[in-house]
Predict the 3D structure of the following.
Amino acid sequence: MSDALAVAAVTETLRAALQTAVRRAAPDAVVTVRHPAAPVLADDTADNAGDEAGGRAPTLNVFLYRTSVDAAWRNTDPPGTRPGETRPPALPLVLHYLFTGYAPRDADSTLPERLLGAAMSALHDQPVLHADAVRAAADFSDLHRQPEPVRLTPAAMPADEMWRLWTALGHGYRLSVAYEARVVLLDSSAPGRTPLPVLRRGSAGLGPQAAPTPADPWPVLRSVLPAVASPGGDVVLSGSGLGSGEATVRLTHPLLGGPVVLPARAEGRAAVRVTLDEELAAGRWSAVVVLSSPDGDARTTAPVALRIAPRLGGALPLSVARAAKGATVLSVECAPAVHPGQRAELLVADLPVPAEPFTRATRKLRFRLAGGLPGRYPLRLRVDGVDSPLADAQAERFDADAAVVIT
């Protein structure tokens, strides 16, 4: 989701996108983000100070005049919330903008109409603020990491409502169009709760079981075991029709890209086994099985999710002295390295604590725990929604070393 600077990031991204559009209509046009009652025309410059308009340039003003809350998102769990966890919902904002065109001073022209037409045409062709554009125009915010893209749509504003708006602004009416930017999800700063994992499901700990189905003519991938893999460990990908050629597994990551191609070993016609690389980043990967025949033909399965868990490293259990004032700082070693852009949290018992910002791949993360009473608490490291192992499935107990002792 996004931080509190996301509102300003939307405005800055709009300014950058519309600047390119209006200069196709008027080469010296500029885009401003001021109150319409204030002077919104561009300041005099040495290049245009001598024109007959008195040194003013054609201007498109973008004014955020109102915000509202999106009812559909208001009580929705934040993206990435897992079953059993509770996190405060994000604040879903809808931003209401007013676009107004201004001609140079004392000019008799259709420049305002041309500027508005260029802006509306640009937003009609590209109504979504893509992550790359947001990052380039507003790198002070993490709006580009929001999973739900911000979409611009024209807003129907009746004539009487437009008249009331301009009256409230204390300025004479000018030709304007209204747009909505939906939706901007602002992160809640209130802590959530992440319960400890279940040690056993069902009488034998097997959980739900499904009956086999007949083999499909085309290779099909249905499941991955274990459900959460470890770097350097083996993973079995099961389905049907997987023994009809030389098998490889291709992994792709939404942030780190890929593909990472790994050789696989067939286990009958219904499964293949692959050994993961030790340096594969933790998080959610997408896996497909590629079956190559001797004649050069290749068949690829549909992708399935592969979750790779991080591991806590260093001396465990972690010992730390409680800070007399302020937050207690926890320094945690991990493997594999966590990359910039990945979301890392330390789960201290049931309290998620976000990692301090980092700018390069690192195996050492810092966390600031507000408060923190003396005691011993279980520790899990969560990277992009995947937790480090805490439970010993065979012994049906928690790992005693995966903990922090606050004194």
